């Protein structure tokens, strides 16, 4: 009694011990006829130990016996059939992977070396891989790369199972369980983590060396582009230089934009011809970018103008590898993509200009004013920024007038405070008023030594609560 197991790594022929383990071999043979094992993963491979399979879920926690399909859920597991003469002495020993004593279902394992004595008398041994008919397949399975849990990184599946001989007749219920066609590929019940499919083949086995080298270079170029995009050197990893722009170098410093426009326009419409210049001095850096309206004109110019003389200099012409003109599209979106940029300074909107030009206009209505310390505080000729905060956004001149008004108010308050009597005089007046109020119950208003108007004037000068919103600075600039 034998079964042929076709795996993604090769074929295995298993000879069954039907006389010693009738219930176990009956379960295995009928499940093979039901194509129950088709598509099952070898979900665990322990190097030089065992390879385990037979679980449709691919997790090692599932599987049902044929008795469940024939008699119901209560018959999912069946008892062990352990015999002392059946040992794990040879490589390729096939035994049941049980969930405990007398809890066998569908999972089984195959030993990957001789003398696995650790498993003796613990699991039901019901078969062995025939010599010369699958040992090389076991070697491939044993050498597969696995993770920390023993799951192969490349799926190893049972493709098909063929029963070569079955001594027992099939029950009537089994005919309904046998599918008309053998299942192929991944099972519907599989919930294990996805890995490389069993059909995956390394590229070096399917692609010629030249094509493989080109693919490796392409991947390396993409990796470098991702790095450049992450550090902000290019706008995007997938960006490509424009194919209608030429890069012209080794120019004579006297060559102007108009000269390039005149020379290159004979190949087609030139939309821009710009010599790159130092943004401070305006001196030519001896290279330029020429943009054409059509790609064909750019190709003709590259073919005919390379190594030509311009202003006694033999120039070099190549297709542009700069993506600086594309920054606008990535920063501002496609709505501004049609606007022409500029290659100067490697930014689309950069223009060389005098740094002091337009300075007064930029300073207008800002939250700071430039002061000359020599005129305001004395000292050297240094110039500094004096911060002035105002929620209304008024001009610097209005803010300065407001500050001067506050200073005048503070000065008047200081003059009023200088007229307030000394503390000793105020205490003496208070004692006199208290003494007068105690004599004969007289009214306080009739015996005050100063008039009421004077008292009111004094109160105004002495009571700071009359000016709750006025802030007195520690020092005042006049």
TrEMBL record:
Lineage: Eukaryota, Viridiplantae, Streptophyta, Embryophyta, Tracheophyta
Assigned EC number: 5.2.1.8
Keyword Glycoprotein: no
InterPro entries per record: CRIP (IPR035542), Cyclophilin-like_dom_sf (IPR029000), Cyclophilin-type_PPIase_dom (IPR002130), Cyclophilin_PPIL4 (IPR035538), Nucleotide-bd_a/b_plait_sf (IPR012677), RBD_domain_sf (IPR035979), RRM_dom (IPR000504)
Function: PPIases accelerate the folding of proteins. It catalyzes the cis-trans isomerization of proline imidic peptide bonds in oligopeptides.
CDD domains: cyclophilin_RRM (cd01921), RRM_PPIL4 (cd12235)
Name of the protein in its database record: Peptidyl-prolyl cis-trans isomerase
Domain PPIase cyclophilin-type: 10-163
RRM domain residues: 244-322
Chief localization: nucleus
Entry keywords, A to Z: Isomerase, Nucleus, RNA-binding, Rotamase
Location in the cell: Nucleus
GO molecular function: peptidyl-prolyl cis-trans isomerase activity; RNA binding
UniProt similarity note: Belongs to the cyclophilin-type PPIase family. PPIL4 subfamily.
Span list, region Disordered: 366-459
Reactions mediated catalytically: [protein]-peptidylproline (omega=180) = [protein]-peptidylproline (omega=0)
PANTHER family in UniProt: PEPTIDYL-PROLYL CIS-TRANS ISOMERASE-LIKE 4
